[in-house]
Amino acid sequence: MTSAPSTTGKRSDPLQGFATGLFVLVVAELLAGLFLEARYRADAEHAYASVNSMAGPMGWFRSFHYWSSSLLIAGSLIALVWMIVARRFERSHGKTWLSMACLYAASMVSQITGNLLPFDRHGVETAVVESGIAGRTPVAGATLQSLILHGNQFSDQTVRYWHMAHVCAWVVGAAGAALFWFGANGTIRNRALMWIPLALGALLGLAIRAPLGSPGSPADYGSYDAQVSWYNWPLHGSLNLFSRLSTDLGWVGSVVMPGLLALVIVTAPFVSRWISAKVIQAVFAIFGAYFLVAALFFGGRFAPLVGNRDPIASTSPAPSSQAAGAADPVLYAKGRSLFNSNECSGCHGQDGRSGGDGPSLLGVAQRRGSDPSWYMQFIKDPTSKDPNTMMPAFPSLSSDETRAIAEFLIHQKP
After folding, report:
1. Tens of pLDDT, residues 48-90
2. Which residue has the higher pLDDT, 240 or 279?
3. What are all long-range contacts of 267-272, with beta carbons under 8 Å and residues at least 24 apart?
4. Which of 65, 239, 387, 413 could in theory staple to 253 by disulfide, Cβ–Cβ 3.0 to 4.6 A?
5. Are strands 12-13 and 188-189 parallel, antiparallel or unpaired?
6. pLDDT of residue 170
């Protein structure tokens, strides 16, 4: 008679149990997503209605799918930090480490792309903002923006493309699961921790409905008023931090810094053969401190976690019911020249007529009013009027110059 293998000398591993629980949640979320696919229609005309019609058990599956994705982002990040502290990024734990990195990447991409799929105003404007951020990257910006939008501008094809990316994100998640299962080192998983992520996802799905605002419309295709989502908050802060240093450096915060962190994560198991664990831990600590400071001091407010997350326009005077008066032709011409010769036209297009990396400014006075002082302050310090704006500050412009630009914007015709 064959006896069961002995577990003498082996300890229950809480970290291994927690990581196992995350991948159990991955399987459950994938099954919920497949169930939702039967009702979802990935096009601008039907996406919102198909999501809004999900009620009863279908509504619970949607909420479970949404909150599970959020839990996977937070959980995989917690697991990575746990592993850094426990020095489990070394080569002997390389497969488990890389599996968590894959899971974090998959859950982030899934949440970012999934945010657009309900096609509410927050989702649409967030996608537009994210494409604008990518468009600021030197050399590759136009290509990245076209890749994100699947064209030159937001369209029905963007929704279909993001839906496909949302589904494909879990190929990376599945790769992470395979690495985890085949890379297990024989430790006994803590079985209590294995079921905590799934239980939390189920409870959140029952208790809190997934957020859904007003339906998106073509008016949102060129709007940048959406508040940043919580999972992008540190990246938004990093973008704003470098934009404060220079109007041309925002891409360093939004592309270079996250890219460097990703490189450190992926290479940690391999370089640990030559670099001491304390040095690698110090590098991770520096990155963690940087993104925490960026989020807290430069990230602004993030969108509500529940309920209606419709974008809130920046603080501005109520549009006047009276005409702004005749434009000063000399001041208008000077403002137009300044607008097109500075970085303004790089984001907003020539004369502000074709939004690319930033929104179109045609008819801006109808939305923001005709008070020149508001525009002058916004140009010098955009966050004073909108804490969530991505527009860089132009403190070096003189009052005469900002007054001229304000004259041009106020009298700009649709």
Report:
1. 999 999 988 889 999 999 999 999 999 999 999 999 999 999 9
2. 279
3. 268/89, 268/97, 269/89, 269/90, 269/91, 269/93, 269/94, 269/97, 269/98, 270/91, 270/94, 272/89, 272/90, 272/91
4. 239
5. parallel
6. 81
Q: What is the rounded distance in angstroms from the CA atom of residue 334 to the CA atom of residue 158? A: 38
Q: Read off the tokens for 159.
A: 């929704």
Q: For residue 296, how many other CB atoms are within 10 A of its CB?
A: 11
Determine the Cα–Cα distance for residues 403 and 72; give it in Å rounded to an integer: 49
Write out the E strands in 220-362: none
Cα distance between residue 166 and residue 169, in whole Å: 5
Instruction: Report how far apart, in Å, the C-alpha atoms of 220 and of each of 122, 212, 277, 302, 340 are.
Output: 9, 15, 48, 19, 25
What's the rounded Cα separation, in Å, for the pair 241 and 249? Answer: 9
Contacts of 18 by beta carbon, 8 Å cutoff, 6+ apart: 75, 78, 79, 82, 190, 193, 194, 196, 197
The tokens for 81 are: 């930090």
Contact 74, 234 (CB under 8 A): no
pLDDT at 92 over 50: yes
CA dist list (Å): 34 to 29, 49, 82, 101: 9, 18, 31, 24
Q: How far is the C-alpha of 264 from the C-alpha of 172, rounded, in Å?
A: 19
**Out of 148-157, 286-295, 344-353, least confident range:** 344-353
pLDDT digits (tens, 9 = 90+) for 329-384: 888 888 788 888 877 777 787 877 765 667 777 777 777 778 888 888 888 888 77
Specify the amino acid at residue 212: L
Q: DSSP assignment of 121-154, as one string?
A: HHHHHHHHHHHHHHHTSTTTHHHHHHHHHTSSS-
CA distance 100 to 400: 54
- Give the pLDDT score at 3: 44
User: 375, 371, 370: which is closest to 399 by C-alpha?
Assistant: 375
Q: Is 123 exposed, middle or buried (0-12, 13-18, 19+ CB in 10 A)?
A: buried
**pLDDT for the residue 8:** 43
11 pLDDT exceeds 60? no
Let me know if 199 is exposed, middle or buried by CB neighbors in 10 A (0-12, 13-18, 19+): exposed
